TrEMBL record:
Domain Erythromycin biosynthesis protein CIII-like C-terminal, first and last residues per copy: 288-380
Name the record gives this protein: Uncharacterized protein
Keyword Cell membrane: no
UniProt source species: Streptomyces davaonensis (strain DSM 101723 / JCM 4913 / KCC S-0913 / 768)
Keywords carried by this UniProt record: Transferase
SUPFAM superfamilies given in the database record: UDP-Glycosyltransferase/glycogen phosphorylase
GO MF terms held by the record: hexosyltransferase activity; UDP-glycosyltransferase activity
Keyword Transferase: yes
């Protein structure tokens, strides 16, 4: 069960396929718009009624751009989630009734755990970001800043309380519906496996038992062939820079696209722009605009990747072994962007509000032409590709199902 943007869904398609090939019957429970992601897999699909893209383009969703701080954005997205979560409850319960084990993303953890308790089903958290409080870093959803050991841990508890508040108006009715006492909650902590590499975020030393880091879970990509027009563009010159913001939206996509084009041309680089939910686009013989293309097929052909530093796109760039220029916009993107810089595969982060051609061009030039960034990216990519993030999940599911 997962909710959110494409990046909150795609990794579970490959993980689900691995579970299916091990003999399990797997249903992906998420927004209806993502049903095409399971095409070609052995997964079943149970649609949820909310369209996250429509919500982001609504007046409430566009309000995210009016917040300049991580806390402000988090409060706004929490209000957005509270407004829509009740519309998904019936389908979540129906899908759970047809299941033996519930695997929960962080976005549906509180409600999923309540449903599992009511139906007496074992459950396991499968998270794409580290959410448990730790002294080692501040909550990723608030960005990259550290507030010191005590401040980081305190903020982590605060974020978890806010997550619980998102479901505060829905959980009581679900508990009543499933015959649970309204005020009683399961006391045992939810075991959680985290789908990112320990090479990128080592398991915090102060995490309690039951929280583990497995390695990445990769989206299922059935077609590794690039369209002919992309191959023609790649063959026409030096490797280009990928430009994409995934499911993030921006206030003025045309102006942002034009500024990035100016930066690329100032640096003497070609570009492949992926429209995404933000609507990026570029024109000219040295620029190409594409729609959905598997990152696993495209990224290894790039000179560098300029992206919003969402968890999934960050992982895809690392796996491909290419340098990055992160342009974080909101939530955990600042956290992953800072990780890329710390790992030495990105020269710097360029936050969206600070992006100009004058600032971006030298960052692009360094990412592409400084051999140290490429060498570190290639070495790290090789090690990440050798990890098997699915094996610990398969073992955990076997224990729960047994």
């Amino acid at each position: 069960m997962t909710a959110g943007s494409r990046g909150d869904v795609a990794p579970y398609t490959g993980l689900g396929q691995a579970l299916a090939r091990a003999g399990h019957q797997v249903t992906l429970v998420t927004h209806a718009r993502f049903e095409p992601l399971v095409a070609g897999t052995e997964l079943r699909f149970h649609p949820l009624p909310v369209d996250p893209r429509a919500e982001l383009h609504s007046s409430r969703g566009r309000g995210l751009h009016r917040s300049a701080t991580g806390v402000g954005k988090l409060m706004r997205v929490a209000a957005l989630a509270r407004a829509v979560v009740g519309r998904m409850t019936d389908d979540l319960v129906a899908a759970a009734r047809a299941s033996d084990v519930l695997l929960l993303s962080s976005s549906l953890g509180p409600i999923g755990r309540t449903i599992a308790e009511g139906l007496r089903l074992p459950c396991l958290g499968l998270y794409l970001q580290p959410l448990a409080p730790t002294r080692e870093f501040a909550p990723p959803v608030l960005g990259a800043a550290s507030w010191g050991a005590l401040g980081n841990r305190f903020a982590g508890h605060g974020v978890n309380l806010l997550m619980e508040r998102i479901f505060a108006s829905t959980v009581p009715s679900v508990r009543t519906r499933l015959g649970l006492p309204r005020g009683n909650r399961a006391g045992r902590a939810l075991p959680v496996l985290h789908g990112f590499s320990p090479l990128v975020v080592p398991r915090p030393r102060d995490w309690p038992s039951g929280l583990d880091v497995t390695g990445y879970w990769w989206p299922y990509d059935r077609d590794q062939l690039l369209p002919a027009r992309i191959e023609e563009f790649l063959d026409a010159g030096e490797p280009p820079v990928f430009v994409g913001l995934g499911s993030a939206t921006v206030p003025d996509p045309a102006a942002l696209s034009a500024e990035i084009v100016r930066a690329l041309r100032r640096a003497g680089l070609r570009g492949v722009f992926q429209r995404g939910w933000g609507g990026l686009a570029a024109d000219g013989a040295d620029m190409l605009t594409v729609d959905e293309v598997p990152h696993s097929a495209l990224f290894p052909r790039m000179a560098a990747v300029l992206h919003h530093a969402g968890a999934g796109t960050t992982a895809a760039g690392l796996r491909a072994g290419v340098p990055a220029v992160p342009v974080p916009i909101q939530f955990d993107e600042g956290f992953w962007a800072e990780r890329l810089v710390t790992l030495g595969v990105a020269p710097r982060r360029v936050p969206l509000r600070a992006l100009t051609a004058q600032v971006l061009a030298p960052a692009l030039d360094r990412a592409v032409r400084d051999p140290a960034h490429r060498e570190r990216a290639q070495a790290l990519g090789l090690r990440i590709r050798q990890e098997d993030g699915t094996a610990p999940v398969l073992a955990a599911v076997e224990r729960l199902a047994g």
